[in-house]
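Quick start: read one record
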Amino acid sequence: MARIAIGGFQHETNTFAPTKAGYAAFEVGGGFPAITSGDALFEVMAGRNISIAGFIDGAKAAGHDLIATTWAAASPSAEVTDDAFERITTMICDGIRGAGAIDAVYLCLHGAMVTESHEDGEGEIVAWVRDVVGPDLPVIVSLDLHGNMTRRFHDLVTACVAYKTYPHIDMADTGRRTAEMLDRILVEGKPAKAYRQLDFLIPLSWQCTMMAPSGPIYDRMMAMETGGVWTTSYLPGFPAADIHDCGPSVFAYGATEAEAEAAADAIAADIARLEPEFAGKIYNPDEAVAEAMRLAKGAGKPVVIADTQDNPGAGGNGDTAGMLKALVKAGVEKAAIGLMIDRKAAEAAHAAGIGAEITIPLGGVSGIPGDAPLEATYTVEALHDGNTTGTGPFYRNAKMRLGPSAGLRIGGVRIALASNKVQMADQNLYRYVGIEPTEQAILVNKSSVHFRADFAPIAHEILVAAAPGPMIADPAKLAWTRLRKGMRLSPMGPVWEG
């Protein structure tokens, strides 16, 4: 039995997004639990699809004694403020200091955190922890698949284990695999490790493991985890962080340096070989709606459109109106869009009451170039306080605090409206405001990929659309300044020369 200090600090940073993450954002938590310290963490995480929840289950089953420090997460946005970073990291480190004699540290991190002062947020967190525990104590980390990982981070951690699915339906499973990895380290000693970076950026929509080329890459990678290869991780990266180390990376751990290096080389070569396949059709709003209407004729299931550039799971605020305007302009019947995030509009709906008609500007809150509110008359069909629970594979058991919420209608288009942002990755985020997603001909989801876990089973077909928003679908269109020279800005795309 080992004594293990555990904690977590997660943020996916889109440096091109409009809003930074201050301490208050972590007090809200978005789709994840808010800041939690001490033993309350065990209760908060019970049954959740989060890596630290899986680690707790796996480590307790192995008989280990866990000492909880602090957990914190916030919805993706622009940089984490220095104040938030320093306060939360200090809480984790103080918890480790107060744990007494320990045998290891487990951290539930993301991998794509950028702060106001640090490009490599996770590397900085681990550096702070190393200052507390020293260079030799095992420090093992679970990571999101979208990490932009650095050599510094690789050198500081004993090992890391990343998700292998996108949509991330294996977050808790990743925590359990991390616990198994730590058990092996405690028995057999520290593994040899290898790290590789790829030289091109991969758009989010084509990182999805439910289709090629990503899914087969992970299948082949997992088949390598035998014998002397302990564990492998491939991170396609989060391609909206203007930092030196943005982009895909590979980690491999093994009994010997030769085995770890060979595994990392093989995975990196597989990804590089398939570079041309990391691309796909992206529609403009009007094209997407027209194609969805064509496909919906005679279809028994909804056609789903991903409003990928306003994805709250990648730094968007969920408030752009481009896709809503396209639906209304086309006169679509039996369509729904969500979640639209506009607190003033939601409060106006609550003030008016169910059945009322309200004339308001909807959306356009963030002032994204090319976007503006849709001022029109809407019917209030449902009201809700915003407290609801995820039911699908991604947000399973997640306790949502979405603030004043409403179901609105304009013509044949229904709108799931909330006050606090979270991406549309769960069918219940329509149902809680009275919209049944399976009864719609067209659904427009403000998400890039995570929605597929719950919506692919009910979808006739899925399209990807790019309305104005902060999560630019094609990384080559972003205004890079700090990316390392020689990176291709998209698969087979232009080379960044600085």
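The chain has a mean pLDDT of 96.
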